[in-house]
Amino acid sequence: MAIAAALSRALDSDLWWSFRRSPVTMLSALVALVCILGAALAPWLAPHDPFDLATLNLGDAFKPPAWSAEGDALYPLGTDDQGRDMLSAIMYGARVSLLVGISAVVFSTVVGVAVGLLAGYLGGWADGLLMRIADIQLTFPSILIALLVDGVVRAALPRELHDRIALFVVIFAIGISAWPQFARTVRGSTLVERNKEYVLAARVIGISQLRIMLTHVLPNVVGPVLVIATLGLSSAIITEATLSFLGVGVPPTQPSLGTLIRIGNDFLFSGEWWITIFPGAALIAMVLSVNLLGDWLRDALNPRLR
Questions:
Q1: Where are the beta strands (DSSP E) in the chain?
Q2: Which residues make beta-bridge pairs with 85?
Q3: Membrane-spanning residues where (predicted)?
């Protein structure tokens, strides 16, 4: 009954009404859902396992898409230089891209919200110190911060550990480069909320500052955070693809869409265009759909636009 009541309230909400009124948003949600399901269910939906060396056949290398004269129906989007099915490689690569993007956004959200809450609620020297750190980091491009962090961590760790921890290093590098956006947004909202009557009343009855921040202030500042997180997901996916294209992202044994684009780029001008075009198209579709959903969420949660 509780689930049914919650579903009924959701279907009667302004958010659902706004979603149904926007064909572009509905199409974007459908594309994002297809990308997520295709990536999450790749082991069951993919026609082949592109990373099982026992199933690879170099004789199938450089096969064009199935609709071409020399294509093969077994490989709908063709194969790469190793004979791997491109459709399967894209589905598995999207898993890595989404995993890195979502994990990095979660990490940056937790760090940014915590810093923003502390800075906005405590004020004084804590606010000044934390925001100056955020301002300094914002002067550098996110990709530069991610490259710097990735390089420092790789230099500090033994070479034999690089491939095993590469995924975690990339997540940390991307996440630590994006927290200032969350921190500044939450800090601004917290400055407004901390002087309202319900916060003052909580102080009067003796509730601890930590509990006030977590149970009273935080629920009232999460709206903008959801919008930034949605838009930040697309930025994180692009950053990961850029790092992988430059050869400093995930290891070759766990290729993402950026890795596939880098591999295909070597054959782009020799006629094997599908090796890089299809992963690039998948990356564009994923990022564009997430961006459009973020734009809709920003407008839907803005009371001035209702």
A1: none
A2: 79
A3: 24-46, 96-123, 129-153, 165-183, 225-248, 273-297
What confidence score (pLDDT) does residue 302 get?
66
> pLDDT tens across 38-87, in order?
999 998 998 888 877 777 777 778 888 988 888 888 889 988 888 888 99
Structure tokens at 59: 């004789």
How far, in Å, CA of 99 to CA of 163, rounded? 16
d(CA 185, CA 221): 9
Residues 6+ apart with CB under 8 A from 265: 245, 276
Could you tell me if residue 240 is left (phi over 0), alpha (psi between -120 and 50 degrees) or otherwise beta? alpha
Map tokens 């500044």 to a residue.
184
Neighbours of 220 (CB within 10 A): 14
Contact 146, 177 (CB under 8 A): yes
DSSP state of 217: I
> Containing H/E element for 5?
helix 2-11
Q: Do the Cβ atoms of 213 and 193 come closer than 8 Å?
A: no
